[in-house]
What we know:
α10 (264-289) packs parallel to α15. 45% of the residues lie in helices and 27% in strands. It has four domains: 2-87, 2-Layer Sandwich (Beta-Lactamase); 107-212, Beta-Lactamase; 217-289, Helix Hairpins; 292-440, Heat Shock Protein 90. By secondary structure, the chain is of the alpha+beta class. The chain contains 15 helices and 16 strands. A five-stranded antiparallel sheet has the order 6-5-9-8-7, with helices on both faces. A five-stranded mixed sheet has the order 11-13-14-16-15. Strands 1-4-3-2 form a four-stranded antiparallel sheet, with helices on both faces. The site of magnesium ion has 4 residues, from α13.
Amino acid sequence: MLNSNWEVIYANSVMENMVDLPLSKYYRKKLWDLFSVDDYNNFFQHCLRAMETQETVEFQGALHKKGVMMDLTIVPSEQGITIIAKDITWYMDQFERLRKSENRFSIITNHIKEACWVCSPETGELVFLSDSFTQIYGVDKEIILNDPPRLFDLIDKEYLDQVKEAALIMTQKEHQVEFTITTPDGESKWIRMKGFPAEDDGKQYVVGIDEEITKIKEMTLLEEKSRQLSTITQMAAGVAHEIKNPLTAIKGFLQIGAVNPDLRDSYHDIILDEVNRIESIVQDFMMLSKPKSSVQLEYVNLDAIISYVSRLLDPDISNKEVMIHYTCDSRLNGFYCEPKRLKQILINLVSNAMDALDEDGEVQIEAVLQNDELIISVIDNGHGLSEQELTKLGEPFYTTKEKGTGLGIMVTKKMIDDLDGRLNYQSSKNEGTCVTVRLPFRT
Ligand code: ADP
Ligand code: MG
């Protein structure tokens, strides 16, 4: 406390500690004898104002020598002024640290090309959105910050449900989704959004990163195209080669037959064999060129399909002593699939299995239902495949059989793809092979 003559008349011990002076010993000394006016000009001016206007003055000041930050309140009274000082050094330090950390955070988030965001799933509010958002989405981030659902206007309709569903999963665990947007300028872009749940101060948030992947998508499409193109070239050469051999044979026998009519009959079977071979290559190729859109789902009965397949392959069965067993999940009455492709898939797999068997072998066909998937396994105890042979499966014209085309697995794979299924081989040399086909179980 100062009297109207600027003399110190009282100071408590906290004040003494804060200013680091035994003020109680200096009672009746003038304030400017204790603190230099030059150093604390600002402070003296505030005191003067309080003294003259009789108004309470509040301000923040620093004790330079001690590095103490203070919140000061000067309350005037009849006798002079009361100075109340609060040490806020710690708060200021924390505040500064927070400011710096926020600065660093925004340096990172606003300078990387991905858009970062934090939202509260409870309120649907966007708590944070980095500057890159504007660049990626072509919409000022402030617009979306004020009205988050407007983000959905940018997402192309066919992906909207997928994105909303993904956003829901992100509240539980890390998840990502890829979708296309159309910016207000009409530009079409691919976006990959990754998000994960996070907790802060007892509140749940989702933190996410959006990245533009248009270039990456275009590249992979291009790569796929060029891979397709090179397979086509390779296959065209292969087909020509495969068909040329039987054609040469047929031509040769026909020429011999033309000059030796009595030999014609004996060549008849060989010529028919070669023609059949060409036919089966051509059939396989026709299957390959059928687009996925030609799939026509029908309600099918797996029992009926399998018995059709075993009857068709019957001549082979009687040739060798092969047993075909069939077991089927009782829940598997009927489902939607394309019978043509399904039959062809099974014919290819079962005939490969039978080819792999010695004199007396067994082929086991099992059908089970698992998590909305129909799993058909074709298991044989034939000669099996080595690891190296396994990697070759599905390559066009890879065959170890004298009369093989080496197209069966490739065509099978393509048909399974058409039906949204998957094909898997497990095999060990001299023990046998298990081929599994997984198909969506549509009812
Ligand atoms: P192809 O039957 O005309 O030879 P595929 O594409 O059907 O052509 O099969 C390619 C090759 O894969 C076969 O030649 C055979 O060596 C091998 N293979 C396929 N299935 C089996 C199986 N179940 N057991 C052993 N080898 C197999
Ligand atoms: Mg085959």
